[in-house]
Amino acid sequence: MTVRVGLTGGIASGKSTVSAILAELGAVVVDADLIAREVVARGTPGLAAVVEEFGSGLLTPEGDLDRPAMGALVFGDPDARKRLEAIVHPLVHRRSAEVEEAAAPGALVVHDIPLLAEVGRAGQFDAVVVVDVPTEVQVERMVRDRGWSREEAESRIAAQATREQRLAVATHVVDNSGSMEDLRRRVEEVHAELAARA
After folding, report:
1. Max CA-CA distance within the chain?
2. For a FRET experiment, which of 8, 23, 180, 187 has its CA 20 to 30 Å from that of 108?
3. Where does ATP bind (predicted)?
């Protein structure tokens, strides 16, 4: 049987690295962020709906969605974020279901969903893997790796579920505050446990 897994973690927790390791180990990864970009790519009905809702000022000169401008708008305005999510989330769900249906029988299908705890979808999966790091580590990584100010980092973290809310929905926790070797070992353990259920 197919085992459906939700994978989540706060910004700069290392969730993308965990997702990549799971894919290397043979899991079928359904990446909600990647799909969210696809459904609002130039020429899609999704982008047309975003422009209709928010105006053409959110387009680059080439006609693509200006992601930094959109991010700046929605992260400071919960109402705008809800309006954007109402457009994008149904499109992402539909495309994610198509990817899952194409997986081989008995596959481990990992849905990489940054906002899993926020959207209340944990119950839709056989297991939920949470990539966890202390908040201070998230801030340090965003400042160091992304060049953000401490205030930008803290505001982005504040817009997401709390660490406690994420851990509350976890069936498996991957601590990513150690070395890359530690992380890989833990992901391999979790993968083995999940694959045994298939």
Report:
1. 50
2. 180
3. 12-17
Residue 32 annotated as lining a ligand binding site? no
State which of 89, 105, 121 marks the end of a domain.
105
Query: Is 171 among the annotated ligand-binding positions?
Result: no
For 101-120, the pLDDT digits (tens) are 999 888 999 999 988 999 88
* Chain centroid offset of residue 32 CA: 6
Could you give the CA distance from residue 142 to residue 153 in angstroms, rounded to a whole number?
A: 6
56 is in an annotated binding site: no
Six-digit token pair at 175?
């601590």
Q: Where in the sequence is the domain holding 48, given as residue range(s)?
A: 34-105
> For the chain, what is the domain count?
2
Q: How many CB atoms lie within 10 A of CB 189?
A: 12
- Look up the pTM and report it: 0.81
The C-alpha atoms of residue 18 and residue 31 are separated, in whole angstroms, by 12
pLDDT at 198 over 80: no
Is 16 annotated as a binding-site member?
A: yes
106: tokens are 């008995």
Torsion sign, CA atoms 39, 45, 51, 52: negative
CB 37 within 8 A of CB 47: no
Residue 14, annotated ligand binder?
yes
The H or E element containing residue 111 is strand 108-112
